[in-house]
Specification:
- By secondary structure, the protein is of the alpha/beta class.
- Helices cover 39% and strands 14% of the residues.
- Helix 3 packs parallel to helix 4.
Length: 157
């Protein structure tokens, strides 16, 4: 499922990022790149204002497309248009706090996530991937659990 993100809504909820920082959009995009790579997902993050406007070639990658509103439109308008034009809106995850965006997304069947919830997921430390999907239990651990469950290690079934 691709994400469609209201960028400035999200920046305001991420510790260490500030809407007052002139590089806040680039910092968010860097975090999104790592997150999307780990999740093997794609996203479009839309920001109000910015020159030259449109898709940023400098910030965008295969997994993260950064779009800046320009020409009298807003990030909210762009996000709403993308939700309305989506061929498979049920396949979208929309991250925004804007009521109008959420209403359109819900009517079209898209999944919605609050900026707070997404920020928590985005900033959570990555879960280490154990290369061995079958954990091994030591003989001492076996004895411990046998005692816990009241079984005698020498009993035969």
């Amino acid at each position: 499922m691709p994400y469609l993100i209201d960028g400035h809504n999200l920046i305001a909820k991420i510790p260490g990022l500030s809407l007052d920082d002139p590089h806040d959009e680039a910092k968010l995009v860097e975090r999104l790149k790592g997150f999307m790579a780990r999740k093997r997902r794609r996203c479009t993050v839309v920001f109000d204002g910015g020159l030259p406007g449109g898709t940023s070639r400098d910030l965008s990658t295969h997994s993260v497309r950064a779009v800046f509103a320009h020409g009298g439109t807003t990030a909210d308008r762009i996000i709403i248009e993308r939700i309305r034009d989506a061929r498979n809106p049920a396949g979208l995850i929309v991250v925004s706090a804007d009521r109008e965006i959420l209403d359109v997304a819900e009517r079209r069947g898209a999944r919605t996530v609050s900026p707070e919830a997404f920020a928590a997921e985005l900033t959570a430390p990555p879960v280490p991937h154990d290369s061995d999907p079958n954990p091994h239990v030591s003989p001492g651990e076996v004895e411990h659990w046998l005692r816990v469950f009241g079984a005698d290690a020498d009993e035969e079934e």
